[in-house]
Amino acid sequence: MEIIRRHFTENSVGVEGEVKCSAYGETSPGNFDVCWSCGADLAAKAVECFSCRSACGHGTAWQDCGMDFSKWRGMDPHLLVGLVNTELRNHSESLEDFLKTHDLAKEDLVRKLGEAGYSYREEQRQFR
Description:
The chain is α+β, with helices and mostly antiparallel strands. The chain is built from four helices and four strands. The protein has a domain of 62 residues. The longest helix has 15 residues. The chain starts with a helix and ends with a strand.
């Protein structure tokens, strides 16, 4: 990624400086409209997110922050576990908070991940 960013920075004619992404804080060359890393609109104003209580730039509704779990049932469980654990770590205070935030039934998620050998570890706040 650094090579890509350096290429565009070095080949930016008449553009000075960098723009900081309001979503995750990455910097992009001043001629970019969207973040080179996450694709967020660089002109968007950061607002405090209802879910994560940070200026994530995704909006004020929990649906706009974090990951989209609307199609989780069709996901490969080995990919799903990584997404769930990331969301638990970054945007949730507990499994119950995660489930409530994304309107998921605990039994369904535990069953899906359990079929692939994963179980929730309360002390680690993740599926292993």
